[in-house]
Design a protein that fits this description.
By secondary structure, the protein is mainly α. The chain contains 7 helices and no strands.
Length: 196
Amino acid sequence: MKDIFSAFGSEVFRPLVTIVIPGAMAITVWFIALLQKFARLRAIADANHTETIFLLTLASIAVGLLVEDFGSRIEKRFDEWLVAKPGFALHRDEWKSYWRVVFKAEPIGQRYLNTILLRFKFELGTAIALLFAATGLLFTTLSLCSALAGMGVALLAAYLLMEEGRSSHRLLSEIRHEILKGAIPYPADAPPAVQN
């Protein structure tokens, strides 16, 4: 029974951290700006809390998926950057080899890799969400000075998260490199085909 709950926790936690939270961060400022601009929308949201939460949840998921897609594009740029670094020329080849590996027993490093991957996806998603949210500050009722100050803080945080993402990306490559040292490629370890 404990395994069922731990699997459910991980299956819920990963999308929450990588999709829902960044998506919610990206739309919140824009939603506040809409409520401030349109009194009728504010009245509808006040009268229909459950429906509003449901729609905001769906919007968070949709925007979160788009944010994750942008994050994948940035990850591709990180790959290009990393290959140019000394000691990482084989990064792409090792990444493709890693896709084909089947483990008889999960290496200890695999769990660490999954933890760093989750953190990496969160860093990229949050950085992108902050960029999107920062522009929404200009449409709120904040003074221009306050909106620009908020944008500055959000942009700085996005930059720092992007740099952390770059570090996490490099660490992921190093971990995969170490895991591959003891891996057996799938075709060599595959069971013999059943003949009819």
